[in-house]
Amino acid sequence: MAEQAVTAAELRACRLLVEQPEAVLHELAAAATRRFLADREVLVTRGERCTQLAWVVGGRLALSVPHEGRSVLVMTLGPGDLLGWSLLREEPTVLASAHAVGPTELIELPAERLFAALTAGTPAAGVLLRRLIGIAAADLEATRAQLLRLGHEGPISAG
Description:
- The protein is of the alpha+beta class.
- It contains four helices and eight strands; from the N terminus they run ααββββββββαα.
- The chain has one domain: Jelly Rolls (Sandwich).
- The strands form two sheets. The chain has a four-stranded antiparallel beta sheet. The protein has a four-stranded antiparallel beta sheet with strand order 2-7-4-5, with no helix packed on it.
- It starts with 7 loop residues before the first helix and ends in a 10-residue tail after the last helix.
């Protein structure tokens, strides 16, 4: 499949980048890559160095971690979701493995380009930083809520 360029207009649809100036969007689009995964194809493996923020454009990703000798599903991501929060850590290693559930399309932004936009010292950089932290915090809260529900799903029946 021929490589398809990522456009500034596409990035504007990402909840992280929605109000960024055109120049910032064009710069990020030039560094971004589009990636297509086949069903069950692995995007990242736990323990790898995290170097990109990925935005799910279409399809789904399953996130899993090893626990007591087996792989445990911890979350699924769909269109509009972001993956790669580990890049915000001092030691940016991937905390959960991710694989495609059906055909999946992603746009990946290199961490160094994202950090350059965050540290530009402009009002837009401040908005981007607050939005990035806000989205990460909301995702953490959703994860916490999901963990609190574990074991309280109720009976499962065949219909």
